[in-house]
């Protein structure tokens, strides 16, 4: 499994949790999570992502990486 797969696997879980637990912070429901994850994958590919969501912060924490654009990009682009 690549780092990118790890990141987005955890992100999908964290996003689903956040959408339910903190619905006031999200403009969509749980049914939109797969489409949002796909859009975020594309945004990461284009380096045009926003790192400030609760789901991204939690993903970084669970992976043990800093919550910075540089650290996130290096993790996703790095190793297996």
Structure notes:
This protein has helices at residues 3-21, 33-45, 54-63, 69-77. It is mainly alpha-helical. Helix 1 crosses helix 2.
Outline:
This protein is mainly alpha-helical and 80 residues long. It contains 4 helices and no strands.
Protein topology:
Blueprint: H1 3-21, H2 33-45, H3 54-63, H4 69-77
Helix pairs in contact: 1-2, 1-3
What percentage of amino acids are in beta strands? under 5%
Q: How many β strands by DSSP?
A: 0
The helix-strand sequence is HHHH
Rounded average pLDDT: 92
Show unreliable segments: none
Tell me the helix content: 55-70%
Radius of gyration: 12 Å
Number of helices: 4
Structural class: mainly alpha
Biggest β-sheet strands, sense, barrel: none
3D shape: globular
Distance between the termini: 6 Å
Can you tag this structure with a few keywords?
single chain, 80 residues, mainly alpha, globular
């Amino acid at each position: 499994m690549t780092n990118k797969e790890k990141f987005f696997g955890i992100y999908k879980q964290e996003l689903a949790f956040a959408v339910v637990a903190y619905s006031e912070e999200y403009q969509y429901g749980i049914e939109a999570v797969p489409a949002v994850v796909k859009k975020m994958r594309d945004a990461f590919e284009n380096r045009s992502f926003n790192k400030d969501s609760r789901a991204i912060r939690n993903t970084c924490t669970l992976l043990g990486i800093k919550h910075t654009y540089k650290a996130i990009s290096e993790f996703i682009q790095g190793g297996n």
